[in-house]
Amino acid sequence: QVQLVESGGGLVQAGGSLRLSCAASGLTFSLYRMGWFRQAPGKEREFVARINLSGSSTYYTDSVKGRSTISRDNAKNTVYLQMDSLKPEDTAVYYCAASQSGYEYAYWGQGTQVTVSS
User: Fold this and answer.
1) In terms of Cα–Cα distance, which of 109, 107, 103 is closest to 39?
2) Cα distances (angstroms) measured from residue 16 to each of 10, 73, 77
3) How many beta carbons lie within 10 A of that of residue 113, not counting itself?
4) With contact defined as beta carbons under 8 Å apart, do 46 and 39 qualify?
5) Is there a contact between 47 and 68 (Cβ–Cβ < 8 Å)?
6) Which of 63, 78, 98, 114 could form a disulfide with 107 if both were Cys (CB 3.0 to 4.6 A apart)?
7) pLDDT for 61-114, tens place per residue?
8) DSSP per residue, 54-98
9) Could you give the CA distance from residue 108 to residue 86 in angstroms, rounded to a whole number?
């Protein structure tokens, strides 16, 4: 079955960096657009970033633009989210997700916690 497994979360001070990874299995990774989402306590899940099939096109929500980079390695079936200049408001559970259509994400990981202390 399809599995998306996130890793790389943790506790970091404001201004620090983290690199999240999401390893996919059970699907043809190169045929799926990949996205990162996050959910902070008491808030709805929100979109963070997405990347197209080849990795040539990316899109970010305004709050992380310029501080985050999404990338993928189709040979390793893995998508990454490099987050720099982290802020306390970046604290959330981060999820990766896979979409064939580019509109709906059919598969989701279990999430990885990112906590940014001030």
Assistant:
1) 109
2) 11, 24, 27
3) 12
4) yes
5) no
6) 98
7) 999 999 999 999 999 999 999 999 999 999 999 999 999 987 899 999 999 999
8) SSS-EEE-TTTTTTEEEEEETTTTEEEEEE-S--GGG-EEEEEEE
9) 24
The amino acid present at 95, given as its one-letter code, is Y
Dist. CA 53–CA 7, nearest whole Å: 21
Per DSSP, 14 falls in state T
Write down the pLDDT at residue 101: 87
106: region left, alpha or beta (phi > 0 left; psi from -120 to 50 alpha): alpha
Q: Give dist(CA 107, CA 24) in Å, integer.
A: 10
Decide the pairing of beta strands 107-108 and 92-99: antiparallel
| CA triple 18-35-67, angle to 5 deg | 40
CB within 8 A of 18, min separation 6: which ones?
A: 8, 9, 10, 12, 82, 83, 86, 114
Burial 40-51 (b: 16+ CB within 10 A, else e): eeeeeeeebbbb
